[in-house]
Amino acid sequence: MSNPFEILEQRLSNIEVLLLDMKHPPKVPDLVDDQRFFGDKELGKYLNCSIQTINQLKKKQQITFHRMGRRCYYLRSEIDKDLQVKSRRFGKGGK
Q1: What secondary structure letter does DSSP report for 67?
Q2: I need a labelling partner for 60 at 20 to 30 A (CA). Which of 28, 36, 43, 52 fits?
Q3: Architecture of domain 33-90
């Protein structure tokens, strides 16, 4: 028969490992930054513009958006692409 103190020490060691795993859970990798979705407010902060400007861009179909119910969401990669095409079309002045 094994030494009972060795069994207790092994069990305590296992408990310690489990507690450390709970205290420091493994990090879940973030989505690739290009695959990040924005709401209206977040997109306004990202583009440094107002929500009214975002609504005008949507109305003029100058930015791509996705509807879920009554809310609109914007994929960062699509917004970057839309704005890149717009800036090339209008040159550096952005008119």
Answers
A1: E
A2: 36
A3: Orthogonal Bundle (1.10)
